[in-house]
Each structure stands twice: as C-alpha cells, then as structure tokens.
Automatic annotation (TrEMBL):
Gene3D superfamilies: Medium-chain alcohol dehydrogenases, catalytic domain, NAD(P)-binding Rossmann-like Domain. CDD domains: enoyl_reductase_like (cd08249). It comes from the Eukaryota. Pfam families: ADH_N. This is Chaperonin 10-like protein. One of its GO terms (molecular function) is oxidoreductase activity, acting on NAD(P)H. Residues 7-339 form the Enoyl reductase (ER) domain. SUPFAM superfamilies: GroES-like, NAD(P)-binding Rossmann-fold domains.
C-alpha cells in the first residue's frame, strides 16, 4: 500500500509498505479520505525524531477487525481518530484505530465531510464537558450559562459551538475575524448568542462581551486559538472563579486559571506529551470516547450535528506536502484540507 511520511522539514515521501494487521481492540480501515490538522505539521517538525505518518483523521470502510472488536464489520462506513504519534496513521491507503475511537457514519454524510470530524470534534467535547465541566447534551443546561469561544471559525471552535448548542448552553459569545459570517450561521441569536470581530481591537471586544454578560460572571471560556494575543483578552473578561481551556501550551497569566485540553487523553496515559492536569482525568477515557463518538454519529444521522467545511487537495497523498505547508502558513480559514487517498499515484496496486 501507499503511505506518506513527513520529515521535520515537511518534506513528504510516499512509500510502498505492507498493509498492517489489526491487533486486538483495533480496526483496520481502508482510507477513502484523510483529514488534516495543524498538529500534522507540528508533530513532524517539533516532536518526531524521524519521518512519520502524522495523520489521525480517518474516513473509509472497515477492512478487518482485531480480536475482541464488536460492533464493526468489513464494509462498514466509518470515521475514526487514530492514536496520535503511533504507527499506521491516516496518511495511507490503510490505517488503524481503536474500536472505541471509531464510529459509523450515515449514508447522507460523505467521506470528505466525515474526515473533518474525529480529532477536532473530540477536542471540543473534552474541553467543554471534561475540562470546563459544562452540562452535556444528554443533560442540557436549564439556566443561562455564558460561554466564551475564542476562534469560532476554527474547526475546534466551530464544533464547540455546535456541541454547546446541543447542550442548551447560551449565550455563546464567539470571537472571530474574517470568517465572522461563517460563525454567525452557527450561533443562535434568538438565545442571546453573538459573534464579535476581534479586529475591532481588545477594548471594543471587551466592551461587547461585557454588554452581553449584563453583569453576570463569565465562568467558562474555550480559547481554540491559544496564541499570545488571545489569552490576555480572555483574562480581561473571565471571572476570578472562572476557568479557560486552551488547545496549546500558553504562558501563565497571574490570576487566570488555565487548563489545557489534550485530545490524546482519550487514548490513555501512554501519550508521551500528556500533562499533569490531563493525567488526572484519564480514568474512563475510553468510555468518554465511545459515548461522544457515538453521539457524533447520532447527531449526523438526525441533523443536529454537522461536519466542518472542507477543501479537497488535489493528488491525494502526493498533495500532502503542499497541504501541510499551507496549514503552517495559516491559509486554511473556516475549512479543513482533506485528501482523497485513491487519487495518489499508484494507489490500489498490490
């Protein structure tokens, strides 16, 4: 099969390698489409010591299952979250995933759409319902619960808005920029949700947030960008008793309680870059993954949950290098790059 390996300079080599055999508890998936995420260039550049298949978002057909796997059979249409930093990721014709991180996708959802979901949506779920401890969709909020989401047009931010709405969490205060229009289509203005353009400057943004709050404390914030300019703004509006979760390591700010969302938490303590605050939440990680991936599947089937917009990269895995470089350059705004693996030169050959 064809498999793409990325080195620390983001050069990509497509190699011919054997098809893996699924070990106990894992599913072998024939990859139709792979999604991409910012970590797909960060892991090779910053962490990996040798070229790696850093892809984790899988959409395709079940090819075979390992011992003990139940609920999946050859030919099932699925999406899955591959275990980060482990072999046999999604940048290949066949990839492996744990059964508890694999979920069925309805016929109404394309593989391109499904490939946008696993990593980003799970990151959103962990941040909202484990780190911020907000009411889940199956026990929705019964009173106003202000939630600030910085970076509403990012995949993580957009999925956080969708899941928060499913849990009746309002008002949602989403901060966005040039993709503000996209985010406005996600929020529910009838329940007090607003979208604020950060390009107005911090003073104007803070004033608008306080106007929405109307004196209520802001206790929950999700910084889906987590850069040097975002967290200081959150610090200006978050109550002293509040908590903000981030998706990247950040510099501490006095008086601001921060806890990082680590999506690799669902794969357990073996994740090499897991941090102390996440390790304390690891009991029940597989159960959390099962529950929320099943919920994503259910939401897709019944229409209250939707994929993120996407853009198909030409050439399959042969286009991966350009996609990763464009990701690093910040060219993906309000959409995700996806690759049709079958478009790779020589794909399908034994």
């Amino acid at each position: 099969m064809k498999e793409a390996f990325v080195d620390k300079f983001l050069n990509v080599e497509v190699r011919d390698v054997p098809i893996p055999t699924p070990p106990p508890g894992q599913v072998l998936i024939k990859v139709v489409v792979t999604g991409t995420n910012p970590k797909d260039w960060k892991v090779p550049e910053m962490i990996a010591k040798e070229p790696t298949n850093s892809g984790d978002d899988i959409a395709g057909y079940v090819e075979s299952v390992g011992d003990g796997v139940k609920g999946f059979a050859k030919g099932d249409r699925v999406a899955a979250f591959h275990e980060m930093t482990k072999p046999h990721g999604s940048f290949a014709e066949y990839a492996l995933a744990w059964d508890y991180c694999t979920f069925h996708i309805p016929d109404s959802v394309s593989f391109e759409e499904a490939a946008t979901i696993p990593l980003a949506a799970m990151t959103s779920a962990i941040g909202l319902f484990q780190i911020l401890n907000l009411p889940p969709p199956f026990r929705p909020a019964t009173e106003p619960t202000p939630l600030l989401i910085y970076g509403g047009s990012s995949a993580v931010g957009a999925f956080a808005i969708k899941l928060a709405k499913a849990a009746n969490i309002h008002p949602i205060i989403a901060v966005a920029g040039k993709a503000k229009g996209f985010v406005e289509d996600l929020v529910d203005k009838s329940k007090g949700d607003v979208v604020i353009d950060y390009r107005q400057g911090d003073e104007a943004v803070v004033a608008q947030i306080n106007e929405v709050l109307k004196g209520r404390p802001l206790l929950h914030a999700y910084d889906a960008i987590s850069e040097s300019k975002t967290l200081p703004l959150v610090a200006k509006v978050l109550d002293k008793k509040g908590l903000v979760t981030t998706v990247l390591p950040t510099e501490p700010i006095e008086g601001l309680k921060v806890e990082r969302t680590m999506v690799g938490w669902v794969h357990g303590p073996q994740i090499p870059f897991a941090v102390k605050t996440v390790q304390g939440r690891q009991p029940g990680c597989a159960e959390f993954a099962v529950a929320y991936f099943k919920l994503f599947s259910w939401g897709l089937a019944y229409g209250w949950f939707s994929p993120h917009p996407h853009q198909v990269v030409e050439g399959g895995l042969d286009g991966l290098e350009k996609a990763l470089r464009d990701l690093k350059d910040g060219k993906a705004s309000a959409f995700k790059y996806v690759l049709r693996v079958g478009d790779t030169k020589g794909a399908g050959q034994k």
